[in-house]
Amino acid sequence: MVRIKKYGKLLLGVATIGGAILTQSFTQQAAANKKLAGIHRYYNTTGSPSTNPADYEYQDEDNLLCQPNDSKVCSSEWNLGTANPVIGQAPPSTATFVTNSDQEGQYTPQ
Fold it and tell me: Where in this protein does the record put region Disordered (predicted)?
């Protein structure tokens, strides 16, 4: 009986730690998948306000590529729906421009 109590506490501790690790891995997976569909920020290659997809290109969202400049549009958001963004390419033809998503600045490619 003493052995069962001793190992029972150990198993409960291992199960708790295992549950925490599994929960964290699902949270990280969901964050990674968030980049695959939905709304994404595209950089404006012209600097002028535009809703033309040809004027934009997608870059890694972890980098900020806008330098301060009040007179230009650095980036805007596009809703891709279920499409995936591709680095270096314009939004797909099925994407829609997200109004009021412009970010001021000068786009500086890497």
Answer: 91-110
Element counts in the chain: helices (H) and strands (E)? 1, 7
Per residue in 75-94, pLDDT tens? 999 999 998 899 999 999 99
What's the pTM?
Answer: 0.66
Question: Residue 74: which residues within 8 A CB-CB, separation 6 or more?
Answer: 43, 44, 47, 65, 66, 67, 103, 104, 105, 106, 107
Residue of 53, 51, 100, 107 whose CA lies nearest to 75: 107
